[in-house]
Amino acid sequence: MADPATHARLATDTDDGLLLIISGPSGVGKTTITRGVERAIPGSVFSVSCTSRPPTPADVEGVDYHFVSRDEFKRLEARGEFLETAEVFGNCYGTPRKWVDEQLRRGRLVILEIDVQGAIQVKRAMPEAFAIFILPPSEDVLLARLRSRKRESEEIIQRRFAEARKEIATARASSVYDRFIVNERLDAALTEAADAVKAERGKRGR
Ligand code: 5GP
Question: In this structure, is residue 197 part of a structural domain?
Answer without folding.
Answer: yes
